[in-house]
Amino acid sequence: MTEEFDADVLICGAGAAGLTLALDLARRGISFRLIDKADEPFPGSRGKGIQPRTLEVFEDLGIVDRIFAAGGPYPPIRVYRADGDHVDTALTETHEPSAAEPYRMPLMVPQFLTERVMRERLLELGHRPEFGCALVGIQQDGTGVTATLKDRSGEMQRRVRYLIGTDGGRSFVRQALDIGFPGETLGHRGLVADVTLTGLTRDAWHRFNEGDRARMIMFCPLAGTEMFQLQGLLPLDGAFDLSAEGLTRLIMERTGRTDIRIQSVSWASTFTMNARLADRYRAGRVFLAGDAAHVHPPTGAQGLNTSVQDAYNLGWKLAAVLHGAPDRLLDSYEEERRPVAAGMLGLATGLLQADLRGQVRRGREVRQLDLAYPGSSLTLPSAERSDRLAAGDRAPDAPVRGASGQPIRLFDLLKGPHWTAFGYEVRHDLVRPRAGLHIHRIGAEGDILDDRGHFRDAYAVRPGDWVFIRPDGYVGAILPSDSADMPENYLRAVGLAADA
Q: What is the 3-state secondary structure (H, E, C) of 362-386?
């Protein structure tokens, strides 16, 4: 007898990670519920930086233009000196878009606006988060998870195939599974608030007492709003007045200025900075993603981006297994994403120390375009490609043309929930059609023309090469034409067996 399930997947936590996973599952036709114990969506700006790699993810999910419309570029940093003078510097190195990297600069979007765009897109796909619904119990067995939920009507049990904890740094899911969360408390207590104020212009990110951790205070104009994000460090102990009056007093004490006055406070929080990483991301049929799996200082705008990409990595694998792929595919989620989070924690912590010394400039290291999975079990390496694009790397974009002559971007061909195979000037069709794989032949006799050589240059391919790109935009394998059996062997290994 076939067991009945209420949904394939229960997502616990409707922040950026949970919404990303919901959007990905929705477009794949996977049944799910997205719940959150809060009564309403998160109202703050906390994760306000969207890195270029995340913009590529948002393009695939169909929301990148809405995200750009909601936000704007980062302003220059304006550091005030003791004599009242100031100097302006760019926060990040400027890089113009290229054929391979269409997004090369971070975008500022307050987190509540980013998540609003994501919820609106989810509603278009026929789904919405369930706020005011808490997960209070987890039991699992070999075929599914029994989740105990609690809302205003009381407790209920729901049966699902998989449960995903995207429920933040204090994750109930992680604690219920007794998954360790080792790391360190960094000895700093932060203040962040979304405020309206008078006395400062909106053309710069204003910073006072730069390098003096006891007195530093910063005001960042929030793109897409009339508000500023107020930031600073506080003593580790004691209560603090987060009202407009209390924040105005703090500003006067730290800047000596009486013209900067808080008019209203939309959201405010104090927090102790930690760097922690979950011991594991999977326990049977339960997975952790986002802040439930890793917490870190806010420097470098890495957290929300890493959380989005956790979910983007997990979504296609869940769908594939639910459609019949081997369960071991899900093991690659932790294998790939946990090392990325470990590196991100080190980066964010290092940037925090640099910020405290007054060194705030950011480089390419924060943009997440160079993250890769070279050692993944899903990556088929090729030793001779060490100096070129290799399996495991992010798949570059490239302007090409269809055989009809119309211009098209490679990202247009990758967009969607499918795998993609590109055969470059191939003479033989080594790859058989199958569900979940789009096949394109690039060359004079193919459906895609690379007459300006952008694909050839970005992928460093030779005639006869086949490139296999995963649904999350990473190169799985690059195979030469003389590897007759390897394409089929690789595709079977990742759950894409050809139809009989």
A: ECHHHCCCCCCCCCCCCCECCHHHC
Residues contacting residue 140 through CB under 8 Å, at least 6 positions apart? 146, 163, 284, 285, 286
Contact between 45 and 265 under an 8 Å Cβ cutoff? The reply is no
Q: What is the pLDDT of residues 381-425, one digit of tens each?
A: 875 555 579 999 999 999 999 999 999 999 999 999 999 999 999
Query: Which pairing describes strands 466-469 and 145-151: parallel, antiparallel, or unpaired?
Result: unpaired
The CA distance from 474 to 340, in Å, is: 14
Instruction: Please give the Cα distance from 67 to 73 (Å, whole number).
Output: 12
Q: In sequence order, what are the beta bridge partners of 475?
A: 469
Q: H or E element: which one contains 282?
A: strand 282-283
Residue 197's identity, in one-letter code, is L
> What predicted TM-score, i.e. pTM, was given to this entire model?
0.95
Which among 207, 196, 23 is positioned nearest to 114, based on CA atoms? 23
Residues 6+ apart with CB under 8 A from 102: 56, 397, 409, 411
Q: Is the dihedral of CA 361, 366, 370, 376 positive or negative?
A: positive
Backbone angles phi, psi at 381, to 5 degrees: -75, 160
pLDDT one-digit tens code per residue, 79-133? 998 888 999 988 888 889 999 999 999 999 999 999 999 999 999 999 999 999 9
How many Å separate Cα 12 from the centre of its chain? 17
Rounded to 5°, angle at Cα 53 from 360 and 468: 145
Own/partner pairs, 374-383, CB within 8 angstroms, 24+ separation: 376/332, 376/335, 376/336, 377/328, 377/331, 377/332, 377/335, 378/329, 378/332, 378/336, 378/470, 378/476, 378/494, 379/475, 379/476, 379/477, 380/476, 380/477, 380/479, 380/486, 380/490, 382/477, 382/478, 382/479
Phi-psi category of residue 392: left, alpha or beta, with phi > 0 → left and psi -120 to 50 → alpha: left
- Identify which of 285, 324, 329, 293 has the alpha carbon closest to the alpha carbon of residue 311: 293
- Coil, strand or helix at 243: coil
**Cα(491)–Cα(419) distance, rounded to whole angstroms?**
10
